[in-house]
Amino acid sequence: MSYWDYYWYRPTRPKPVKNGIKTKSRGGSIGKTWWSKRWIGVLESFNMGARLGRGRSYARSGQVMSIDVQAGLVTAKVQGSRPKPYQIKIALKPLSQKDWKKVTEAMAEQAIFVAKLLAGEMPQNIEEVFETAKVPLFPKSSRELETDCSCPDWANPCKHIAAVYYLLAEQFDDDPFLIFKLRGKSKKQLINELREKRAGAGEEVIAVEETELGVALSATPLEECLGTFWEAGAELAVFSANPALPEVEFAVLKRLGEAPFTVKNKNICVLLEKAYEIVSRAALARASG
Fold first, then answer.
1. Best CA proximity match to 90, nearest among 30, 3, 171, 191
2. 176: domain range?
3. Does the predicted TM-score (pTM) go above 0.70?
4. Cα 236 to the chain's mean position, in Å?
5. Which of 104, 88, 122 is CA-nearest to residue 185?
6. Do the domain assignments include residue 287?
7. Which alpha helices (DSSP H) does the chain contain, by range?
8. pLDDT tens-digit series, residues 160-212
9. Residues 15 and 145 occupy one common structural domain
């Protein structure tokens, strides 16, 4: 049993909230992607006690009224049993400019990181980059999370703070850049810095690709190739591909967010997700023979 579970408190029933923020998960674990599950796993590893479970119930019932994520600080309002909502603050120290410089330089060395982040995905081994730079992405201990709640429960975390923890996980599902924002780097800043660091390397890569392609390209004028335009060249025989489903489903749709219109009371993104799934699996089946 956790140290926090020894505190006595009088059980109370929270006041219902209209249009509160509810978790998408109605049962079982919260969080779909590996990075949101990592966030929850880190918190649960701190042995915070039964209040995490109570916080999960609050998150599912919609007691959280608002959440705002800024550099180093999360603020929220949670409706408890009292008339006035409780004010929540969760602080996580932003990384220094020196630390971010080390991280972005390590990221920029791998083009796949830039490509995935642009698509709204969190690269599976992104944490290794932070570890190599000796910079933490996720908190290493509960002491790194400075929390405050205006409720009378003096345990830390209380169920109101815990509810915000769980809803943060689902917000990380929708926008992985929020993790970086919490650590002090906005999406725009990160992408711009990665592009700048890749700019010099990009010119070198383009030059190499043009040289390699130049060997294989025919010098025959286009007008003389019109009759064989639709015929496959000899290069097709050695062409290979390894198709696979993406690590993050509907990454582009998630990055764009909900569309401003609906079809038969359903957001068009919901319909597109189904279409993307059918087409992706059909393409994979065809490519696999």
1. 171
2. 3-95+123-128+135-183
3. no
4. 37
5. 104
6. yes
7. 34-44, 51-61, 97-108, 111-118, 126-132, 159-174, 177-182, 187-216, 251-256, 268-287
8. 999 999 999 999 988 889 999 999 999 889 988 888 887 755 544 333 344 44
9. yes
